[in-house]
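Justification of computing resources. Each target in the renewal requires a structure prediction run like the one illustrated here; the chain below, 342 residues long, is used simply to show the kind of job we budget for.
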Amino acid sequence: MDQQLMLTILAGTSKEPVTKDKFIEFAKTVTFDYENIAFYDAVVTFSTKYEQFHKKVFPDKPVTDVQRAHVITESGKGTASRPSTSKTTSLSSHNPTEASESSNVIISVEPKTQVLGNWDRIDPKFPSLLTKECKTEHDLQEFARQACFEISKEFILEGSEQEVNISGEAKKMIKKRVEEGKDLHPGIFKKALQEVLLNIATNIVPRFKKQQVLTNIGKGEIKVRYLSFAIFLIIFAVIVALLWTIGYNASSLFRLVTFIPLVPMYMGWIQARTKFCVTHGGKGTSNFSPAVKDALQIFIETKDTCARVSAKEYANMLTRRGYILSAATVAVLLAIPPYNYP
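Resulting structure tokens:
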């Protein structure tokens, strides 16, 4: 499930609210390992373009799997094939070295889709990936040589700006091939790509998935929560103004009345800010438009026990927060000594 989800997001085919841009932002600000996603984009883009150029230069000589960093199936859909032999393991392993040696991660990316969405989004640090055409074998070799050098410099060499966390064996192999400068192709990054995908699947996806499970309302419902907050804020202000008008000499019981509008006021604000409805959270449901619900089916299953428990706990926490804030506000009102106008 997580492997399929990861590849769908990375290929840029997922829809709101589970988009690649949000995934990238999460990796940059929460898990702080965006370099893994950047490496994936660079390598798969390189592999996709290499195959396109190779087909033009050698129309009767298809690219072999050894030369690819990823495999494109006949269907051309962004999917992942699970290993079928007993000697292989899935991405669920937590040992990058073992997983990269034994797993058979098959990444299918449709060339026409373009992994980065548009070629003009490619980082300027990789000018070779902006290459439009290769007419001769020399052009293809030069494209591969330059791309391998740029990707290695940015992600593989020790101390590089976006060094990825891969095994020493994978780094050594890539460094040796690039230094030799012979028979270079995207396939030299295949092992490193498998290890990076493992890192993404185990470190970013679960936390990103948990965050999205704790988002169960869309823009329309968020507006309703803000409206609720505004209405009860006005009601609270009217009550406080009334207390002020009568000289604030009302009994404590009358001041406690302010607790009634405070609870829905704070709950409206909290739910709008967190994009989470405590009622839906307690039931393990969501309230999105049909299109968004369809996009979330691959992502969130409301029958998932872990997801429902997590949502219920979060709902209880937000409810407690609302009551605590309301009680604190009432306590402040009670602390103000009574007085009369002169």
